[in-house]
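Many introductory courses stop at the sequence. We go one step further.
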Amino acid sequence: MLQLPITELDVRPGRVLTWRLGDAPERRTPGVVSYNQEDQLATVRALREAADPAIAPESLACQPVITFEIRRPPDPRALEAALLHFVRRHEALRCSFGHRATETTGPTGEVTTTRETTCEVTDARDAALDYRDLGRPGSPAALRTVLDSLFQEIDVLAGRLFVLAAVVREGSATVYLAFDHSVYDGLSAAVAVHDVATAYAAYARGAEPELPPTESHVSFSRDQRRRMTTLRAGDGRLEYWKQCMTPDGGLCPPFPLDLGLAPGEVRPAVIRTDRLLTETGTRALYERSRAVGGGIFAAFLAALGIWVRDAGGPDTFSGFMPVGARGRGPYEHAMGWFANAVPVRFSVAADRDRAAIIAGIRAAYTTAAQHAHVPFMLARRLLTAAHAPHEGTASPHGSATVPHEGATVPSEGATAPREGATVPSIPCAFSYIDYTRSPGAAQHAAWRARHHLRLSHCNGLCFWLHRTATGLYVYLAYPDTPEAASVMSGLRPALVRTLRDMAASPTGL
């Protein structure tokens, strides 16, 4: 499963069918909002209030569009049944969010308004899909316009968390699964394709789907809230986070090279996916890196950190690393935002060879991952309360947005946050997903599974490293400035050269 820019979406024309969750019935139960969701909702609400009233929701955050292929004459009824099965299977997709405002009066008469994020869940038995047939756009450009319009219907504040669509042709179909980030993380892409494609195949042959059991993201959120109830700023669970704090109260120093951005400034994003290694090269890199105590991700971070150091950066490289919390347990096959961002730093000092740097990186991110049970937003909220203003702007809930895939600003062409808007700071973020170990991996090629990301603006660097059956790839996002382009023009080929050199070295790293 490749991660690709949205510009590489399959737009071969055909008949466009689309589904979304029907109007909420009366039978609904209270849910629980995760810390990720709470912060995202606060951020989107603040941006919406600060932006033009006509702003399109999709420009406020990163939005995934997952696709797969049906490579035979499609059965639209079987597909609709598979999509309904998918929505009923995953409680996260049946959530709707809101907020309650509470006013409190202080001892001197000042009134403080706080917002509590709320969640309600539609019962699986009541879930229904609204179906629309949008006809046949006459060209790829016309189809792209139709799809763009569909994806823009997603709006977390209005309770529209996903759009499901298909372009049906005589001998094939392309299925599009688009989500709000509040119910998705990188591995959810594989879960979605596996569930829908497997259920479709079953219904098309007149059988019932057989899928592994799964727990709900709502249950995960409830357990997360319960575990964090007693967390306070002096808690020992925050000791690692305290060690990562910068003097100004942030949790990560700025990216050390000039990206042409003023503090708080954002720019339109440049997005691309580069192939770093073939599968043969990826296996060789894995074996050589493991021999010195590392792995593929550690080798990539070593190549990144060494190049930045040689370009004028420091001997210690810092960034944010999303860490998955689903594991191989009950949430392995669940839809939801299970990732948490953790600050990580490691030495790339010139007096250390590659093997030592890779081993140090593995140790650093292993340590960081051990502290990922503390939600990023909660840790930041607690630890920065007593500090002076720091990198990033506090959300209405007192936290700052997690550096996930793509912080954006309210409108095309904007280069600075509007007054009152929350603009997260992303000095540098990097992650790694091995899709060859994800649900349905053996059929990703047959399904032609793709993971596209809609992202209009950014204010830092994102490196989403991922392994597929055909090799090692990196999805890159960086601001569209001459300075950032200059950095990336040197960095991108250097990453390829260094990783290929590591993989090919007969004497080790």
